[in-house]
Amino acid sequence: MPNTKSVKSLLEKIPGYQKKLLSLREIILANAVMIGEHQAETFNESDRIDFLSDRFTECGLLNISIDEVGNAIAILPGKNKDKNILVAAHADTVFKKTVDHTVMVEPNFIIGPGIADNSLGLSILGVLPVILEKLDIQFTSNIIFLGTVQSLGRGELKGIRFFLDNFNKPIDSAICVEGVHLGRLSYKSLGMLRGEITCHATRESEWDDFDSKGIIPDLIKIISEISRIPIPEKPKTSIILGSVEAGTSYNTAPLSSNLRFEIRSEKDKMVREIQKRIEEIVDDAAIATGSKIVFDIIARISPGGLNDNHPLVINTKHLMRSLGIDSKITPSVGLLSALINKGIPGITLGLTKGSNLHELNESIKIDPIFKGLAQLIGIMQLADLEN
Amino acid sequence: MNIEPWLKSNTFHHSMFWNNLALLEQKEKKDQTVSLCIPTLNEEKTIGKEIVIFKSELMDRYPLIDEIAVIDSGSTDNTLEVAESFGADVYLSSDILPEEGEKKGKGENLWKAIYQLKGDIICYVDADIKNVHPRFAYGLIAPLLYHDQIKYVKAFYDRPLVVSGNIRVSGGGRVTEILMRPLFSLFFPELTAIVQPLSGEYAVRRNVLDKLPFPIGYGVETSHILDVYHRWGLEAFGQTDLDQRVHRNQTTAALGKMSFGILQSFLNRVERNGMLEKLPDLSHIHRQFQFRNNQYEQTTSKIIEEERPPMITIPAYREKFGLEKN
Fold first, then answer.
1. Closest residue of A to B47, CA-based?
2. In CATH, which superfamily holds the domain spanning A4-189+303-386?
3. What is the pLDDT of residue B247?
4. What mean pLDDT is predicted for residues A354-359?
5. Which residues does chain A have within 8 Å of residue B55's beta carbon, measured at their own beta carbons?
6. Which of A13, B131, B252, B283 has CA 20 to 30 A from B55's CA?
7. B45/A contact by beta carbon, under 8 A
8. Contact: A37, B131; criterion CB under 8 Å
């Protein structure tokens, strides 16, 4: 049973953290900038992970290591060595190695590719020990800091899955940190399937068929059919068409085209039904066009999560209210889903407001970061009380 | 010629000083204070990041720097507001030593910084560094803390022009290669050991800075090098490789103006040192740099500009074309 008196006393204390956090502003921002300037395309996160690991060393954490897949791990020991709280953030971003990763600092914004998703979130792991020391906060539980690799897209959450399969201590609760958006609260995982459809022309070159329009029309037909799939209101379901690629010039008909998409639903059954329908569309298109069309499943996640009345959920909502944060409950398909699959109570939070997500001018607001951090520290303390 | 031993003993790489904690202990042992000065004119796009990085890493985490000051020439954008919002001390150059009047130019800000700032060591860093990193300050300050004989530390940067195997030609900027290195090769061959004499980042002891005159424009770096060399010799210099520096590129026209200013400062020094009336034997060796097996070394080329007389003075020519004698 939660110690409600302790919780109440903590909820009153946490809003006061914000003022002290302001005195650490440059340390917090500099870490976000320096993490953000280390490019970290999925599968190539090692520079960023090395930097984070160095930060862990500077903070005096224990058991600092980089594991076989490349995750950075460190431990802030608590008074009770048997209890463990995981604080995790994904290190990878959607930006390629070739993108200029220069970060700009304006009076109330930090701007740069990946700064919101998830340079800020990751950078906080490297500065939290300094903050906790400044706020004179100690924990009963061990705090496990984890920067994960291979989380996005084709990474299929390999980093966190590896950690959860191989870490030799039980995780009692977990908090996943995202740069944006402050107010986000995820404690359920959606059913999800990420897929790719690739169309290959069977012709050798454009000269085989002077009137050839290439392979793009074939993909357009498939997209059009996918768009006609009926989407129910309940269970909440969506099909996101995330990326289309084909061709390189004005006057050469391409020989291949590619669609990336994601199916999300509160029910696994619905994800599977839509998957089956898309497979039928692909088969029909292959027969009708004579092209070779391949459907690959890149990643799959089963739905699940905490109940609305789980203490971690209730306490987090109380804390958000006491900080004046409007909470928005959103399901997750990120690190949280891997935790849920392992039966570990966990939530995902955002730290600040941001805009232009996944654009080169991705930006975050500076001022709300301090409230977001007070929220994160508060939830760590509340989770510690529950342990 | 002291160039090769000097290159070995007084040329550093920033990675030699990565341990900021050790650096901090050395600073305390030497009982030195350090000021960071950033001269500005309309730098609102880059100044915020510079202040945040330097303050976080070299004041809050490891207090190697005792003050960060922005000295501004009268920006019309928000340079001062941005710098102040992230914790820098900001000054208008015109407000410092007003009785000495006001001149416009980067050198003016650097000169007034000596009066305004408190440090035993002053580290100057330009405000337009896109890839700013703490090394841009500690890499320059560290040699002064570890080597008592070094008084003036210049930055240089990795600008690989040609890479072949493990030999890399290490070049300066365009003005350095086209103007400075040929001038130094001719008049002050030892100074060619300084890889990038015009770099805008350097750290200097106060007791040296307060004895130097300051051209207020483009010539400030050149004049410092000549004056420090004249008074204390090559051994007073150190230089640190800070790896890459990304900054805005200047037009050829702008570099022409810069060269004109530099040449004025250079010739002033040559005249002041009595070299104009009594020119030294001009060297025929042009000196450049390459990086081989993790060591910097000079490459020399003998360039003798021989001359032929006017054709009309050649007897065979005169005879062929029937020209009278004389």
1. A105
2. Zn peptidases (3.40.630.10)
3. 65
4. 94
5. 26, 30
6. A13
7. yes
8. yes
Tokens coding B224: 């410092």
Q: Is the pLDDT of residue B279 over 60?
A: yes
Cα angle B211, B215, B218; round to 5: 135
Beta strands in chain A (DSSP E): 62-66, 72-76, 84-90, 104-105, 109-111, 142-148, 173-180, 184-186, 188-189, 191-200, 237-246, 256-265, 292-301, 304-305, 328-329, 346-352, 354-355, 363-365
Domains of chain B, by residue range, sit at 3-160+193-276
> Which one of B56, B85, B133 has the shortest CB-CB distance to A27?
B56
Q: Do B56 and A37 touch (CB under 8 A)?
A: no
Q: How far is B52 from chain A (nearest CA, A)?
A: 5
Q: Which of A100, A97, A145 is closest to A123 using CA atoms?
A: A145
Locate A120 and state its tokens: 């800020």
3-state secondary structure A299-322: EEECCEECCCCCHHHHHHHHHHHH
Tokens of A310: 């789980």
- Closest Cα in chain B, distance from residue A30 (Å): 5
pLDDT category of residue A212 using cuts at 50, 70 and 90: low
* Residue in B47, B56, B57 to test binding to A, most A beta-carbons within 10 Å: B56
pLDDT at A1: 40
**Cα–Cα dist A85/A227, whole Å:** 43
In the predicted model, what is the mean pLDDT of residues B301-323?
88
The answer, for A58 touching chain B at a CB cutoff of 8 Å, is yes
Rg for chain A, CA atoms, rounded: 23
User: Are A30 and B48 a contacting pair at CB < 8 A?
Assistant: no
Interchain proximity A58–B61, CB inside 8 Å: yes
Model confidence pLDDT, tens digit, residues A53-76:
999 999 999 999 999 999 999 999
Q: How much is the pLDDT for B293?
A: 66
CB B40 within 8 A of CB B89: no
Interchain contact A57–B (C-beta under 8 A): no
pLDDT tens-digit series, residues A69-97: 999 999 999 998 889 999 999 999 999 98
For residue A309 the two structure tokens come to 């009345």
**Concatenated DSSP letters for A151-165?**
-SGGGTTHHHHHHHH
- Tell me which architecture the domain covering A191-301 has in CATH: 2-Layer Sandwich (3.30)
Whether the CB of B55 is below 8 Å from some CB of chain A: the reply is yes
Rounded to the nearest angstrom, the gap between the alpha carbon of residue A217 and the centroid of all alpha carbons in its chain is 34
- The 10s digit of each residue's pLDDT in A26-44 is 999 999 999 999 999 999 9
In this complex, do B56 and A30 lie within 8 Å of one another by their Cβ atoms? Answer: yes
Amino acid A3: pLDDT: 57
Q: B57–A106: do the CB atoms touch at under 8 Å?
A: no
Q: Which CATH class is domain B3-160+193-276?
A: alpha beta
Signed CA dihedral, A345, A351, A354, A358: sign only: negative
- The answer to whether A102 faces chain B, any CB pair under 8 Å, is yes
Does B161 score more than 60 pLDDT? no
Q: At A210, is the pLDDT very low, low, confident or very high (cuts 50, 70, 90)?
A: low
Instruction: Verify whether the Cβ–Cβ distance A26 to B55 is below 8 Å.
Output: yes
A34 at the B interface (CB within 8 A)? yes
Nearest CA in chain B to A109: B48
Chain A neighbors of B60, CB-CB under 8 A: 24, 26-27
The mean pLDDT value for A3-20 works out to 87
User: Given pLDDT bands bounded at 50, 70 and 90, which one contains residue B164?
Assistant: very low
Q: What is the pLDDT of residues B104-151, one digit of tens each?
A: 888 999 999 999 999 999 999 999 888 899 999 999 999 999 999 999
ipTM of the complex, rounded to two decimals: 0.79
**Would you kindly state where each structural domain of chain A is located, as residue ranges?**
4-189+303-386, 191-301
**Quick check: B48 and A105 CB within 8 A?**
yes
